C-alpha cells in the first residue's frame, strides 16, 4: 500500500498557524511579501490554505527603492508568489529621509504599512497578513526594556489589530524564525537575504546577533519564548487599562478654553497606574503628544503634591492647576 510522503513538521506548523488566522476572516486578504524566509513561508502557507478556507488571497511586494537592485528583488518575489498560485503585484513607494532622532528602519516600516493599507482599501481586502515571528516579538520587547518603555510599548506586536478599518493579522507570532527557514528549505523556496539584516548600524541587528545569543547562553534556552510571554501579559494589562480609562474618562473630563480639564479629586482617587495613564491619554488624544515618564510624573504632582507650583510646559501644551481642576491647554 502506497503511503503519502509525510509533511515536513515546519511546513505543518506554519500551515496550522495560517489556517487558524484564515478561519477568522471572510473577505479577501493580502500577504505582505518581501522574499525573505518569513514572508515566503507565510505566502506559501496562505496559497495552500486559502482555497480550502474559501478565502481570496493576493500578495503585495513593497519596493522601497532603498537598495540597489530592489526592483529586481521585488519582481522575483512577486514571481515566486505567482508560482505558488497567488496573484501578486509590486508597489513602489518613495521613502522620505528620517526625521531628526528617527531612523531609516522606522520610516521604511511606516511607509510599507501605509502602502499595504492603501492597497487593501483599494482592492477591498478585509485583512493584511504579516510575517512577524516570535523572534521578532522577543527582540521588540528587549529593545523596549532597554529604552525604558512603558507596558503599552512592551506589549509589542499584537496578533491582531485594526488600522484604518483594515485588520492586521500576524499568524506567525508563535513560530520561531528557524521554523520559517526550515519550511522554505523543505518546500525548495529560494530565500532572499536582506543585507539590512546584517547591517550592524541597526539596533535590531545588534540585538539579534549579539544580545539574544548571550542571553540564551547565560540564562539557558527559552529566553525568546519568555520575552514573548511577557509581551502577551503586558498587552492584556494595557488593554484592560484602556477599557478602564474609556469607562472613567467621560465622567471626569470636560472641555476648557483651548484645551481640556480633568477633575483633580477623581484623578487623586485613582491608583497611580490608572492616574498616569489617564494623563497620558488626555494629552495624546487632545494634542497628539506622547509624554515621557518624567513629564507624566510632573503633571501628576499637580494633583497629588500641589503646593502652589505654577504651570508645567510640555511639548505643544501646558498643564496647570486651576482650583479643583487640572487644565491642559495649548501652549
TrEMBL record:
Keywords linked to the UniProt accession: ATP-binding, Cytoplasm, Ligase, Nucleotide-binding, tRNA processing
Binding site for ATP: 34-39
Residue ranges of domain tRNA(Ile)-lysidine/2-thiocytidine synthase N-terminal in the record: 29-209
Pfam families: ATP_bind_3, TilS
EC number: 6.3.4.19
Locations listed in the record: Cytoplasm
Spans traversing the lipid bilayer: none
Enzyme's top EC category: ligase
Domain tRNA(Ile)-lysidine synthase substrate-binding, residue spans: 263-326
Reactions performed catalytically: cytidine(34) in tRNA(Ile2) + L-lysine + ATP = lysidine(34) in tRNA(Ile2) + AMP + diphosphate + H(+)
Molecular-function annotations in GO: tRNA(Ile)-lysidine synthase activity
Functional description taken from the UniProt entry: Ligates lysine onto the cytidine present at position 34 of the AUA codon-specific tRNA(Ile) that contains the anticodon CAU, in an ATP-dependent manner. Cytidine is converted to lysidine, thus changing the amino acid specificity of the tRNA from methionine to isoleucine.
Free-text note on domains in this protein's UniProt record: The N-terminal region contains the highly conserved SGGXDS motif, predicted to be a P-loop motif involved in ATP binding.
Annotated family: Belongs to the tRNA(Ile)-lysidine synthase family.
NCBIfam families: lysidine_TilS_N
Protein name according to UniProt: tRNA(Ile)-lysidine synthase
Organism: Microbacterium flavum
Amino acid at each position: 500500500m502506497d503511503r503519502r510522503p509525510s509533511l515536513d513538521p515546519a511546513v505543518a506548523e506554519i500551515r496550522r498557524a495560517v489556517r487558524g488566522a484564515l478561519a477568522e476572516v471572510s473577505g479577501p486578504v493580502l500577504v505582505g511579501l518581501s522574499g525573505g524566509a518569513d514572508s515566503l513561508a507565510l505566502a506559501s502557507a496562505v496559497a495552500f490554505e486559502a482555497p480550502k478556507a474559501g478565502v481570496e488571497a493576493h500578495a503585495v511586494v513593497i519596493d522601497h527603492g532603498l537598495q540597489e537592485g530592489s526592483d529586481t528583488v521585488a519582481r522575483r518575489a512577486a514571481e515566486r508568489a505567482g508560482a505558488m498560485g497567488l496573484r501578486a503585484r509590486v508597489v513602489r513607494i518613495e521613502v522620505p529621509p528620517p526625521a531628526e532622532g528617527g531612523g531609516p528602519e522606522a520610516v521604511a516600516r511606516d511607509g510599507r504599512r501605509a502602502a499595504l493599507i492603501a492597497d487593501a482599501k483599494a482592492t477591498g481586502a478585509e485583512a493584511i497578513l504579516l510575517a512577524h515571528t516570535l523572534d521578532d516579538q522577543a527582540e521588540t520587547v528587549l529593545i523596549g526594556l532597554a529604552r525604558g518603555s512603558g507596558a503599552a510599548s512592551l506589549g509589542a506586536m499584537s496578533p491582531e489589530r485594526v488600522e484604518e478599518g483594515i485588520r492586521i493579522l500576524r499568524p506567525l507570532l508563535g513560530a520561531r524564525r528557524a521554523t520559517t527557514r526550515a519550511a522554505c528549505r523543505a518546500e525548495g523556496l529560494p530565500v532572499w537575504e536582506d543585507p539590512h539584516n546584517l547591517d550592524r548600524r541597526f539596533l535590531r541587528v545588534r540585538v539579534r546577533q549579539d544580545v539574544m545569543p548571550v542571553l540564551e547562553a547565560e540564562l539557558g534556552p527559552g529566553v525568546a519564548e519568555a520575552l514573548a510571554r511577557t509581551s502577551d501579559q503586558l498587552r492584556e494589562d494595557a488593554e484592560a487599562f484602556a477599557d478602564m480609562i474609556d469607562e472613567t474618562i467621560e465622567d471626569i473630563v470636560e472641555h476648557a478654553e483651548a484645551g481640556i480639564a480633568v477633575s483633580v479629586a477623581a484623578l487623586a482617587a485613582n491608583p497611580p497606574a490608572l492616574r498616569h495613564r489617564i494623563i497620558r491619554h488626555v494629552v495624546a488624544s487632545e494634542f497628539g503628544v506622547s509624554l515621557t515618564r518624567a513629564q507624566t510624573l510632573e503633571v501628576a504632582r499637580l494633583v497629588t503634591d500641589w503646593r502652589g507650583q505654577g504651570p508645567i510646559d510640555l511639548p505643544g501644551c501646558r498643564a496647570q492647576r486651576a482650583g479643583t481642576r487640572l487644565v491642559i491647554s495649548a501652549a
